[in-house]
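Worked example 2:
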Amino acid sequence: MKIELSDNKIFFENQGSKKEIHPFWLRERVNGVDFVDKGTKQRLFDPTTLNQNIEINKVNLTDKFLEISFNDGVETKISIQSIFEEYSGINDIKFIKKTKWDSSLKNPNNFQFNENIFEEKIMYEALISFYKYGFIIFKNVPTENNFLVKFANSIGSIRRTNFGEFFNVKSKPNPNDLAYTSLPLAPHTDNPYRNPVPCIQILHCIENAVEGGHSTLVDGFTVTEELKEKYPEYYKILTEVKVKYQFIDKDVILENWAEMIELDENKNFKQVRFSPRLDFVPLIDKEKLDVYYKARNKISEFYNSSKYRIEFKLLSGDLIMMDNYRLLHGRTSFNANEGNRFLQGCYIDYDSTEGKIKHLKRKFNI
C-alpha cells in the first residue's frame, strides 16, 4: 500500500489498484485543537454543514504524513498509517491471531489477581491471551460480596439477562436450566437463543469441595477448521442453514434463528452455536436434511471427543473468562451430597474487552 500525488490529487495504491481519495474524506479527518477535542477525540465541527465542493489547493507528502491545504482555508497534517488502517478496516483485535488448540494444551492461561490488576500492563497481556486462546483464568480472586460483579465492571459493563445481573451456579430444586443440577453438562455454548448472543462468559469459583465437577473446554475454532478440511460438505451446510434456538420458562420465551457455524463478511470464522437440547432444525428438503443431520452428528462427535477437550478443576478463587462465540464449555458430574460446588457467573460483551485493550495500549504506549 502506498500514497501517490498528482496535480493536487491524492491517490491510494494497493495491489495494483489505484484510486483517488475523496478530498472531503480527508477534510473530515482534519485534526488539531480547533477541530478535535483533545480528551474525547470527537470532532468540534459538523461535517454535514461544510461546503460539499471541497478541493485540495496544496499537498505535500513526507515519510509519515500528508500535509494538506484545502480550498476553505483549513490546513492539516494526516498520518499515512492512519489512512492505511482505515482502508484495511484493521483494529487492535484483528491483529491478534487465534491460536488453535486441542487436548494437548497443557498449561492453561493463568494470571495472578491483585487489586490493581485492572490498570496494570499484565491485564493487557491477559486480554491479548484471551483473544489468542479464547479463555484465561485469574487465580486468587476474592470470593466475598459478589466480587464477580466488581471484576466484570472493572473491565467493561455486565450484560444483564433474564438470569439477572449475575447468577449462582449450584444445585437447586426445580431448576430452569440443567446448569443448576449436579448432572454432567456436555460441551455447549451459552444463550444461542439470544440475539445478539452474549460474547463472553465469566465464571467465578466460590467453593468446590466435591469429587468430580471438573470444568471442560473445547475450542470451537479448532473443530470447525478441522471439519472444513475433512468434511467440506458438512461444514458448508452448517454455515448455511439457520436453525431455531429456543429457551422457555415461566417468565419468558426467547428465540433466535441462526447458523450453527456463523461466518463473517469475508467468509471467515465468526461464531459457533451448539446446544442440541435447545435447537430446532427447520423443515426443509428431505435430501438436504439428510446431509444436515449427518453434519450435526459429525460436529457433535468432534465436540465430544477427548481429542479436543481439556479438563480441569476450578479451585476457590479461580475466575475463568471464556469466549462464548468460540469456546464450548461443560462439566463432569458430581455428588452434591459430598460437599458444596458453588460458582457465580455473568456475561460481558466484546466492546468491554476491546475497549480495555485499547485503553491499556494507550496508557502504556504499547
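The chain has two domains: 2-88, 110-362. The mean pLDDT is 92.
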